[in-house]
Write a structure and sequence with these properties.
299 residues; alpha/beta; TIM Barrel; 7-stranded mixed sheet; 11 helices
């Protein structure tokens, strides 16, 4: 089995802790995972230590929120293996603050419409670095207003197609800034779940022009046709391919567990060896350039 490179803990919008995530991965025979909490690197070091103790390799990662300056669409860029994760802290703080402001408005709107208090919603978000739709729905279920996380009440409140939605779009960083920040931190930038877009290949093409190193091909939102299309594009343009379950525990939209979607072994090894390969290519290119100049000087 390859690696599940997209998992969330309760530090963002998952329901399980780091230890539980790693124990579940081991139980399911998944020996490589990435914990990619939204705009949060807080669990990276701890996850690696716990993973080493349990025989599970934890790839350092984070899911960075972004907005497409061209379309206004909300996107996510997965950052893997950053050499200097501290360089992402400013961006994470900026995005987290934007999410928190938007969530506060949504929490107030939910409390105005249904018999639920802000205190109950905040309690459901305890342990998280922010407030998410799932926490609001958790509170509404506890208060007897809703009977499921993604049923009629969720559609009413959080579907863009609902006339009565309470959505507030966070003012996240522009996607180009996010991609550049990943590279400045020595990380690998992967476009998360492009299958959510109306035209995944066109989106990937634009993001590749902005510098992403690859795309999340195998994920819950990608059907076989989309997987085939994205795979063909990535192979043609020499982009990395990853996969992951987007696991959130209790907050999953469907019955999905760690390892339900993975990065195949070949692509996992390509990701893990990508930076070393790039360094070798740069070294070779520099050597060829020096040789060419020396030859030119000799002539």
């Amino acid at each position: 089995m390859g690696g599940d490179l997209h998992c969330h803990t309760r530090l963002s919008n998952g329901s399980m802790g780091i230890e539980e995530i790693i124990s579940l991965a081991k139980c399911r025979g998944v020996d490589t995972i990435a914990i990619t909490d939204h705009d949060c690197l807080a669990g990276t070091v701890r996850a690696k230590i716990i993973g080493d103790r349990n025989g599970v390799t934890v790839v350092p990662g984070v899911e960075l929120s972004a907005v497409d300056g061209e379309t206004g669409e909300l996107l996510s860029i997965l950052c893997y293996l950053p050499d200097f994760p501290d360089r992402l802290e400013g961006l994470c703080h900026k995005n987290s603050a934007a999410r928190k402001r938007a969530a506060q408005y949504m929490m107030i709107k939910a409390a105005q419409r249904y018999p639920v208090t802000g205190e109950i919603i905040k309690r459901c978000a305890a342990g998280s670095t922010n407030l998410y739709e799932q926490h609001i729905m958790h509170a509404l279920i506890e208060c007897g207003v809703a009977d499921s996380f993604y049923g009629d009440v969720y559609v009413e409140l959080f579907s863009p197609d609902s006339e009565n939605n309470i959505l507030v779009k966070p003012a996240f960083a522009d996607v180009k800034e996010v991609i550049d920040s990943v590279h400045a931190a020595g990380g690998i930038a992967i476009l998360a779940h492009p299958a959510r877009s109306g035209d995944p290949e066109a989106l990937l093409e634009r993001m590749a022009a902005l510098g992403v190193n690859g795309a999340e091909v195998w994920c819950p939102t990608a059907d076989d046709k989309t997987v085939a299309s994205l795979t063909a594009y990535c192979k043609k343009h020499k982009l990395l391919m990853t996969g992951g379950s987007d696991f959130r525990g209790l907050y999953n939209k469907e019955a999905i567990s760690i390892g339900s979607y993975v990065t195949p072994k070949t692509q996992l090894n390509e990701l893990l060896g990508y930076k070393a390969k790039q360094r070798r290519l740069m070294k070779k290119s520099a050597a060829l350039e020096v040789a060419a100049k020396e030859q030119q000087a000799a002539e």
